[in-house]
Amino acid sequence: MLDNLREDTRRLKITKTKSFPWYVIESLLFENGYQAVVLHRMAHWFKRRRVPVLGPLIARFNLFLTGVEIGPGAVIGPGLLISHGAGIVIGGYARIGRNAILLHQVTIGSPDPSRIEAMPVIGDNVFIGAGAKVIGAVTVGDDAFIGVNAIVTRDIPGGSRVLCKSGIDVTLRQDLQDLGSGTATTL
Questions:
Q1: Domain of 167?
Q2: Within-domain flag for 187
Q3: Could you tell me the pTM of the whole model?
Q4: How are the residues of the chain apportioned to helix, strand and coil, as percentages rounded to the nearest 5?
């Protein structure tokens, strides 16, 4: 647990300008992503040692304090960086490799409650963008980039980039056009 926490703390330097120990103190006090990682490491430690109640209790406290839900059984490699952690959900059977970066609203879990153990295995050095979902018994290879709002339900080879290409249609609002022409209707 301490080795993982040490690597998690070193990864903070990516986003910090202050020197040690100030960036660590600041992160422990004010960054919900780092707080979530620290609390998950503690919850997972108790779960692995089969200490009843404490793992799930710490995981619940983690959700309450940070808005990040990580199942205590999730196996997460060292160097996890959570930026803006609100709304992140990581299921208890998920596996995540070293040096992952997760942004807010990421979901990593099973497709439905009847297949609770069907959770993703995510490789090393993977970036998962805001709002992305990785669902089911899929494997995401090393060095993959999963973009904003992407939904991953099949295996992704290492070194791949997954993007959500949703087009948007922009038109003028009809009610505003009617106002400009003097033909607006009143309700």
A1: 2-181
A2: no
A3: 0.85
A4: 35, 15, 50
Cβ distance 79 to 6 under 8 Å?
Answer: no
**What Å distances lie between residue 125 and 2, 23, 76, 171, CA to CA?**
20, 22, 12, 40
96 bridge partner residues: 76, 122
Q: How far apart are CA 118 and CA 135, in angstroms?
A: 8
Domain count, the chain: 1
Asked if the structure places residue 11 within a domain, the reply is yes
CB 97 within 8 A of CB 77: yes
Q: Do residues 159 and 144 make contact, with C-beta atoms less than 8 angstroms apart?
A: yes
Who contacts 106 (Cβ-Cβ below 8 Å, separation ≥6)?
Answer: 87, 88, 89, 90, 128, 129, 130, 131, 132, 133, 134
pLDDT tens per residue across all 187 residues of the chain: 888 888 888 888 888 888 888 888 898 899 999 999 999 999 999 999 999 899 999 999 999 999 999 999 999 999 999 999 999 999 999 999 999 999 999 999 999 988 999 999 999 999 999 999 999 999 999 999 999 999 999 999 999 999 988 777 788 887 776 666 655 555 5
Q: What is the CATH number of the domain that holds 45?
A: 2.160.10.10
131 domain-assigned? yes
* Pair 47, 62: CB distance under 8 Å: no
